[in-house]
Design goal:
- The chain has 379 residues and is an alpha/beta fold.
- Helix content is 44%, strand content 19%.
- The chain folds into 2 domains: 263 residues, Alpha-Beta Barrel (TIM Barrel); 97 residues, no CATH class.
- The protein has an 8-stranded parallel beta sheet.
- The longest helix is centred in the last third of the chain and has 27 residues.
């Protein structure tokens, strides 16, 4: 197996450790800022690195359409193209295949779809997904091509979708081949909310053999309790010796609960998307800086933060920027949010190392519940 993965401490099922890649160490649990189109929206690579991020995520679907995977390869690969020298994980395009269902046709061979940009037709197969990610973009961690099963799904539909993803997983593994310690390939567990299908998927992926294992098909409308139930049914069947990645999740409470169930890696668009819409994330949830109550609030978002956006600008100024439509507001709030998520995972790692993760988890749950109660009473 490539990329040594060492678990340094455990607290219940929660674990902290390190995944060693050729481009640097990924401290786990890890949150990966999403750099869909070769950029973490509104932030420079230096700003992202300054928040403590060890790894970022790129998107196969979007990059293959614009500027084109072959063009990125001619320009030196994704790391050189976007000036990021740390590890990059690329998703395979499976989620976009799901979200753009009206523009695609799914077959055993792969997915034929129309570009949402110009209507041009493209074919994404397991082999092409690996070529784009590993060979052209030069991702440190590539993901198998999968079908992200829609929710809700009948059991028969979920089973057929999961088994198609398993067959594609085998083709991806073959196409990826052996790459020494330079690159890694992760498989993706599917099966909707059916525990026996999740187990079947996990066992099938283990039989093929991957460098890491992701849980896909969540954050698609199933809800918090269902997500936790799926993780309860899935993570016990994934190898303890390899990293586990929950795709597309989520809120701080989602991350804490997933860590409690043995998950090591996360990604989500929430930090930058929220920042562009005037929201700053905290342990209690998002704070809307557009709210009039911040118009004369001279306090920063977090006076103790190492992040300049969190520490050096008043809430009143951030409120003004968002109300005035100034792009600096989106920059500062996105910067704060990415820094907050890195702080969150750093505190989780420290809590696990100190044997205090359950206390941290309980604190976060209590703050989330209190904020939800306040929001409900004000509706």
């Amino acid at each position: 197996m490539t990329f040594p993965f060492t678990i340094h401490a455990t607290d219940g099922a929660a674990r902290s450790g390190a995944l060693e890649t050729a481009r640097g160490t990924i401290r786990t649990p890890a949150f990966m800022p999403v750099g869909t189109a070769a950029t973490v929206k509104a932030l420079t690579p230096g700003q992202v690195k300054g928040t403590g991020a060890d790894i970022i995520l790129g998107n196969t679907y979007h990059l293959m359409l614009r500027p084109g995977a072959e063009r990125v390869a001619r320009l030196g690969g994704l790391h050189a193209f976007m000036n990021w020298d740390g590890p990059i994980l690329t998703d395979s395009g499976g989620f976009q295949v799901w979200s753009l269902a009206g523009l695609r046709k799914l077959t055993e061979e792969g997915v034929r779809f129309q570009s949402h940009i110009d209507g041009s037709t493209h074919m994404l197969t397991p082999e092409r997904a690996i070529e784009i990610q590993a060979d052209l973009l030069g991702a440190d961690i590539s993901m198998q091509l999968d079908e992200c099963t829609a929710f809700p799904a009948e059991e028969k539909t979920a089973a057929e979708s999961m088994r198609l993803s398993l067959r594609w997983a085998e083709r991806c593994r073959t196409a990826f081949g052996e790459r020494g310690d330079a690159q890694a390939l992760f498989g993706i567990v599917q099966g909707s909310t059916y525990p026996h299908l999740r187990q079947e998927s996990a066992e099938g992926l283990k039989a093929i053999g991957f460098d890491g294992y992701a849980v896909g098909g969540l954050a698609v409308g199933e809800g918090f309790e269902a997500m936790c139930a799926v993780l309860d049914a899935t993570t016990p069947h994934l190898p303890a010796s390899r990293p586990r990645y929950l795709m597309g999740v989520g809120r701080p409470i989602d991350i804490a609960e997933a860590v409690a169930r043995g998950i090591d890696m996360f990604d989500c668009v929430i930090p930058t998307r929220s920042g562009r819409h005037g929201q700053a994330w905290t342990d209690s949830g998002p704070v809307n800086l557009k709210n009039a109550r911040f118009a004369e609030d001279s306090e920063p978002l977090d006076a103790d933060s190492d992040c300049p956006a969190s520490r050096d600008y008043s809430k009143a100024y951030l409120h003004h920027l968002m109300k005035a439509g100034e792009m600096l507001g989106s920059v500062l709030l996105s910067w704060h949010n990415v820094a907050y998520y890195q702080s969150l995972t750093a505190r989780i790692r420290a809590a696990i190392a100190a044997g205090q993760f359950e206390d941290f988890r309980a604190m976060l749950a209590a703050k989330t519940a209190a904020e939800a109660a306040v929001s409900a009473s004000s509706d």
